Prior knowledge:
alpha+beta, 5 helices, 6 strands, 6-stranded antiparallel β-sheet
Amino acid sequence: MEFRAPITRMLLASDGSTTLLLEALLGLELHVEVARQELRSAGDLDRGVRSAIRAGRSDELLVRHSALRTAEGKIVSRNLVVTDAGSGTPMRGLLRDLDTPLGRGLIALGVSQSRRLLDWGLADWPLTDEAGAEGAVGTAAGDADLCVYKAYVLLEEDVPAIYVHERYNPEFVPADR
């Protein structure tokens, strides 16, 4: 699937901080809004998410629903972030900070990390302004526009640590093919 817009192609090809790349491409400072963060049983989540971070069905996971917003409050991306709740590694500890976007936190932390792309494509972008929309879940016909999504896992010292699923607002990241 080819996308026309250079910004879309760059986001999908990038293996670095999405926050910093979006800020550079849009010329805007972005802020994180955590709609909810909760502990959930891994068995409640999609098998692909569990597999990406090597979680067993009985593991307890930290699940975050968030959005990156402009200073004016417009949502640029909706994000689902999942990690093992029992691990106290420095990278996973970043999720305790509800005010710093994950990308900025990773850079400030200075730990060795990389990203492995798992999937990308088109999903629904809900027309409501709810930050906590889940993953790539569809909505009823007429209630959404198409958007681009990207799913990847953050590796900490080559170990899958954090699953991230980002959907990008088509107003900022065109879904045109």
